[in-house]
Each structure stands twice: as structure tokens, then as C-alpha cells.
Amino acid sequence: AEAVEGLQTLTTVWNLCPRLEGVHLGAHMALEDATGDSAIIEHVGGEMQIYHSRNNLVMTNEPSFDQQKKMLEKYEPWGGNITLPDNLPGSVGSPDRFLRLEYYVKYTPEPANAPEAIANIRSLIGTTNVPFGAPYGGGVYPTWWTSFIDLTDKVYYFDWALTPNLVWFDLGEIDWESLPGILQVQPQGIDLAGNVLCDMTTLEGEDPMLAECAEEKSIALAEEKSTLSGISSLRGTDVIG
């Protein structure tokens, strides 16, 4: 709520978006907090539009958010005459993806824990992913990655489509006061899996020596030494056949 109040006081908002293949892209964003409060912010015709409601849980691309919501009124769950799920559209277009998510969100079960919550979100997002090689046109592109944020426990998840692994890092594990600067990680790495906090490096590629990772790296080093010792012993063993 405080973020929305702050946005409403702005008199000038710069929305700088690059051109992609000659097209000037628009921009919108979603704000949420751990209490469940939510807001969608869009720039339409040079004016900032703020849609603030706990019920605003879904956002896709064009058309504008108010038009997307208006579209829902044609369907039975929102007072219309078109029944679902037998008439649920399945194209890769933004309006169809918006409708699918709004419909499935209504029936998503209450999670018992954080892993179930993430599983629910992954399954929902999966209904709108665009497959590689899908026969579409009009500037729609395949889904390369998805991300999820656990706002309660402050865990950020990243799912790169070209690797089989889900990666994440727990913001609550980080001692922010002792960070040496900006850290980075390439989440597309095929060998990465699970919590990647200790895989992060500085912008120069150096180990940031995070205290949170000292024990993990000590264990990994001990295992590496044990493996090398085993290999050395095998090389020095006579095999009699």
C-alpha cells in the first residue's frame, strides 16, 4: 500500500523501453507484498494507470489491464454466458493466457507449505508457457525462463527452460551488511541446482568469501581431497590377475 501511495504522488514518470525489431515496447509491472496486497502499474497513452486490489493476481501483455478484466465478463465465472472449461481458449495470445490463468487461479488449492506453494505457481505458469517451435506469428516468442518469489520466506526461484534444474537463493540467509559489493550468478548453468547462494561471484569473477558459505565450501573441499586421495591410492596399487 505504501508503494502505491508513493507512486500516486509522482508528477513525472520516465518509461524508457528499447525498440525490439523496430517496435517500441510498452511496459507494465506488478507489485505485491507478503500480506497479499497487489497492484498492477501500466503506462497507457502516456498516463500511468494503477490498478490496486488484492484480486489483481494475473498480468500478461497487451491489451491494457482494464481491457483484460473487461474481457472476463463474457465468461460464466465472472457473470457472462460462455461456459468454462469447455470453452477455455488455448492459444499463445496474451488475452487467452490471461483468461487461463485467471480461471485456474480460482481453483488452485491452498498450499500446506512453501514447496507446495511453489509447485502450485509452477503448474499455473506452465499453462501459459509457449513451447519452442510452436507455429505462431505476430511477434510472440517462446518461454525461455520463468521465475517465482516466495514473499513470506524471501526466496527467489529461477527456472531456465534449457536446463532440467530449478535454482534459487534465500535472501534471508544473506548477511547484507557484510556483502563485498554486487554479486552475480549465471542461472543458466547446466550444473547448477538448488540453492545457488554459494555459487555467486563478484563482478570480477572472484569468490566473495561469504560467511554463510564457509562450512559448505569446507565440506566440498574435504570431499574433493578424499576423492583425490582415493584416486592416488588406486594408481599405486598392483593388480595381480
What are the salient characteristics of this protein?
four-stranded mixed sheet, three-stranded antiparallel sheet, globular, alpha+beta, 5 helices, 241 residues, 11 strands, 19% strand, 26% helix
Describe the model:
- It is a single chain.
- With about 240 residues, the chain is α+β, with helices and mostly antiparallel strands.
- It is about 25% helix and about 20% strand.
- It contains five helices and eleven strands.
- A four-stranded mixed sheet has the order 6-7-8-10, with helices on one face. It has a three-stranded antiparallel sheet with strand order 3-4-5, covered by helices on one side. The chain has a two-stranded antiparallel ribbon with strand order 1-2.
- It starts with a helix and ends in a 6-residue tail after the last helix.
- The model has no long low-confidence stretch (mean pLDDT about 85).
Question: Which helices and strands, and how do they pair?
Answer:
Blueprint: H1 2-8, E1 19-20, E2 23-24, E3 28-32, E4 38-44, E5 47-52, H2 65-72, H3 94-105, H4 114-126, E6 145-150, E7 155-160, E8 166-170, E9 183-184, E10 194-195, E11 201-202, H5 214-235
Parallel strand pairs: 8-10
Antiparallel strand pairs: 1-2, 3-4, 4-5, 6-7, 7-8, 9-11
